[in-house]
């Protein structure tokens, strides 16, 4: 209730009445907060910002917990140093939790100590009851691909912070816990009201149309003729790849992704891999590793393996007489995004069969999903950050059918590669603080960069120096969203003269502009020249974290270091691939590159054999012998200036498998949008052998698995091993939905697979 204290003239005010004024206000605020807002564990106006490498700042705002309103008047800092992961390469998510806290603040006030004399004494008494906010940290489990911690529903998560061993990587505000204002809610309601009005108009039109159809119903064609027309229309829509998201009396799936399949069902014995495939009887996933980690023919730097090389100066800009103080540039905070080296995948074996439904990737709107299905390793999810349209690979990225992804498929071999050296599916965002300067250059020929030498004319008393290598955009200035490599040289390693900044070897492409940048808080200076001495590039500086200004006359001195390889052909053996009871399938996935004019060739040798075989179709039959162990080697062919590379990190995987002799795949429930008592299912089958294979289609409706009333098989006249199995189900209890169950067997290594499924409610 709402209360007001009344004071009369000549009335002596007592402390209880004055205290009650505040209590009444408190009660009114709680009533409004609980009855009007009523948010359970939500925040308002609170923001979280970064303060240094390991600290975050909780900025002022409010916390609403049902009828309680907690007010954060001043920002405070939370130190996350103790939460940093201990293992290099690991990251961890932590949740910042806001909780309400009641604080009673005291103050010195004169208090009467003698009623008769009126004497007083200064005493600390409770003066202010403050409902404020405090922050707690809940950490998840650290690892290469960490998950966010599970937070109780009674907590208010204001932000998620991702930590690496070096500090904070990412801060994500938790939007679902933000309290919306009445203005925001009113805007959303206005939109919904407008849409409801449009829906009502459409509904009125539909009622009119249905009335007209009802009046003409007796003039409709015979059901038999209508079914023939519907089959023809369905076939045309399948050929044109026209499918709706709303429930229809027909359902089509190319089995490219498992989204529409009940893979968690206890009866599931299959795989969805560009078709409906036999599941694994045995499967092994291991990290690719060298048989001899100390192989003298290769050099591994930061997990990147290259043939043995020496460093040579590939580009030199020296002789500058000027000295530029880096710290005179305004300090700023930047958050570049580093692209990772793109990945390739090789699948090999007699069970690797090309599926004609690959054309459905683009037609079904799944172009962005294909890299995740073909290039991801176990437990990894790809998120599309953005596609480049500049430079090499731009033509592929402009083609919606490929989206930068190239496939080479023949029977027994499937090779998936990415047409750009650095891709947008695996990225790292990092923050740097300090003055930012840099130098661009136009690269005229492909090369592998190993580092930079930059002449320092003065070294300050402190301050590490960070170097970042960027790709440049169309403007000729560096693109902070396309960082390639970065390195930090500690202050202790700085000296007047040439300072070397070694990086993980990076492939840079001809015809592109690149840039290096230095970021530091130290009072250091580097050499520069004037009068546009280096015409193929320009120096630049950053003013406020967003604006990059290039210089038309000044260039910083630097030397670009690159690889000179000792041999043009290098053979490296890896640890063997194994699988108990034999292998019929192997898949190699790794990041790396093979520039034009170079090549990477995988070869394998089954146990008991002395010959090495290429991963080519004519050799796949050797796996019919089910070897339990396969030796593996990589042949790297290049020039003295250019060579292929492979990244031997935890994502470099060697998979082996052997499929089982039976298969069972179940779709998720299919909503028809109408009631029916008859269903027809078409299953397209490829790689069929009458003597070795069986296949059957069943229907699940009302919790009952039903066998078909009739089954027919059609053979493709242009492909002797391709079939269409048609199963008809009639007289089933009336249903508005059903699921399909596909079963099959094989007696040898060769296996059939389901190319696509078409379901129609009759």
Q: Per CATH, what is the topology of the largest domain?
A: Jelly Rolls
Over all CA atoms, what is the radius of gyration? 34 Å
User: Low-confidence segments, ≥5 residues, pLDDT <50?
Assistant: 361-375, 379-411
**In DSSP terms, counting alpha (H) and pi (I) runs of 4 or more, how many helices?**
6
CATH class of the largest domain: Mainly Beta
**N- to C-terminal distance:** 64 Å
- What percent of the residues sit in helical stretches (DSSP H or I)? 10-25%
Shape: flat
Let me know the average pLDDT.
Answer: 84
> Judging by the overall fold, what is the CATH architecture of the largest domain?
Sandwich
Strand fraction equals over 45%
Category by helix and strand content: mainly beta
Main sheet summary: 9 strands, antiparallel
Number of strand segments: 51
Number of domains: 4
Task: Explain the overall architecture.
With about 750 residues, the chain is mainly beta. It folds into 4 domains: about 40-180, no CATH class; about 230-280 and about 660-760, Jelly Rolls (Sandwich); about 280-300 and about 565-655, no CATH class; about 310-335 and about 430-565, Jelly Rolls, CATH 2.60.120. The chain contains 6 helices and 51 strands. Strands 14, 15, 16, 21, 22, 23, 37, 41 and 42 form a 9-stranded antiparallel sheet that branches. The chain is flat. The two termini are about 65 Å apart.
């Amino acid at each position: 209730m709402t209360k007001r204290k009344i004071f009369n003239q000549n009335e002596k005010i007592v402390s209880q009445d004055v205290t009650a004024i505040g209590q009444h206000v408190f009660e009114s605020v709680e009533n409004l907060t609980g009855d009007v807002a009523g948010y359970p564990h939500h925040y308002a106006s609170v923001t979280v910002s970064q303060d240094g490498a390991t600290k975050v700042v909780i900025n002022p705002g409010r916390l609403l917990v049902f009828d309680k309103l907690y007010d954060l008047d001043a920002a405070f800092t939370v130190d996350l140093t103790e939460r940093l992961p201990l293992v290099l390469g690991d990251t961890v998510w932590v949740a910042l939790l806001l909780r309400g806290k009641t604080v009673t603040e005291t103050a010195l006030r004169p208090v009467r100590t003698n009623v008769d004399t009126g004497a007083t004494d200064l005493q600390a008494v409770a003066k202010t009851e403050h409902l404020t906010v405090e922050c707690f940290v809940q950490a998840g489990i650290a690892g290469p691909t960490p998950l966010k911690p599970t937070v109780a529903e009674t907590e208010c998560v204001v932000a998620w912070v991702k930590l690496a061993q070096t500090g904070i990587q990412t801060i994500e505000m938790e939007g679902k816990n933000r309290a919306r204002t009445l203005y925001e809610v009113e805007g959303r309601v206005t939109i919904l009201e407008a849409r409801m009005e449009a829906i009502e108009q459409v509904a009125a039109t539909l009622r009119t149309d249905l009335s007209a159809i009802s009046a003409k119903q007796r003039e409709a064609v015979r059901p038999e003729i209508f079914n023939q027309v519907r089959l023809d229309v369905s076939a045309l829509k399948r050929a044109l790849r026209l499918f709706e998201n709303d429930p229809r009396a027909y359902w089509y799936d190319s089995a490219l992704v498992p989204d529409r399949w009940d893979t968690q069902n206890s009866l599931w014995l299959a795989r969805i891999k560009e078709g409906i495939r036999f599941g694994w009887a045995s499967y092994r996933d291991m990290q690719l590793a060298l048989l001899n980690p100390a192989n003298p023919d290769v050099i591994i730097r930061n997990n990147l393996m290259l043939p043995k090389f020496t460093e040579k100066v590939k580009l030199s800009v020296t002789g500058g007489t000027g000295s530029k103080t880096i710290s005179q540039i305004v300090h700023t905070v930047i958050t570049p995004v580093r692209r990772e080296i793109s990945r390739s995948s090789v699948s090999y074996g007699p069970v690797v069969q090309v599926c004609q439904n690959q054309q459905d990737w683009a037609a079904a709107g799944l172009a962005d999903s294909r890299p995740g299905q073909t290039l991801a390793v176990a437990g990894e999810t790809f998120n599309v950050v953005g596609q480049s349209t500049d430079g090499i690979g731009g033509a592929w990225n402009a083609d919606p059918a490929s989206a930068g992804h190239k496939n080479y498929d023949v029977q027994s071999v499937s090779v998936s590669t990415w047409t750009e050296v650095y891709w947008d599916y695996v990225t790292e965002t990092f923050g740097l603080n300090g003055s930012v300067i840099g130098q661009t250059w136009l690269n005229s020929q492909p090369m592998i960069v190993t580092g930079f030498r930059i002449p320092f004319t003065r070294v300050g008393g402190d301050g590490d120096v960070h170097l970042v290598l960027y790709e440049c955009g169309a403007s000729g200035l560096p693109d902070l969203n396309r960082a390639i490599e970065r390195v930090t040289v500690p202050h202790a390693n700085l000296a007047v003269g040439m300072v070397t900044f070694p990086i993980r070897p990076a492939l840079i492409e001809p015809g592109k502009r690149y840039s290096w940048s230095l970021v530091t808080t130290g009072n250091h200076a580097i050499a520069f020249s004037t009068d546009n001495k280096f015409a193929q590039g320009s120096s630049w500086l950053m003013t406020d974290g967003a604006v990059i200004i290039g210089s038309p006359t000044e260039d910083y001195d630097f030397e670009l270091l690159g690889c000179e390889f000792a041999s043009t052909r290098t053979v490296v053996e890896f640890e063997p691939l194994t699988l108990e009871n034999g292998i019929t399938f192997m898949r190699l996935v790794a990041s790396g590159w093979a520039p034009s004019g170079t090549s990477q060739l995988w070869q394998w040798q089954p146990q008991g054999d002395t010959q090495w075989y290429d991963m080519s179709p004519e050799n796949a039959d050797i796996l019919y012998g089910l070897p339990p162990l396969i030796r593996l080697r990589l042949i790297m062919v290049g020039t003295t200036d250019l060579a292929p590379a492979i990244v031997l990190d935890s994502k470099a995987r060697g998979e082996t498998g052997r499929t089982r002799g039976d298969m069972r795949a179940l779709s998720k429930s299919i909503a028809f949008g109408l009631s029916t008592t008859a269903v027809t299912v078409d299953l397209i089958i490829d790689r069929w052998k009458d003597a070795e294979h069986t296949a059957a289609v069943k229907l699940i409706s009302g919790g009952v698995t039903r066998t078909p009333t009739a089954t027919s098989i059609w053979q493709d006249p242009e492909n002797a091993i391709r079939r269409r199995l048609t199963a008809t189900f009639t007289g089933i209890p009336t249903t508005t939905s059903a699921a399909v169950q596909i079963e099959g067997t094989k007696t040898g290594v060769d296996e059939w697979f389901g190319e696509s499924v078409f379901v129609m409610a009759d």
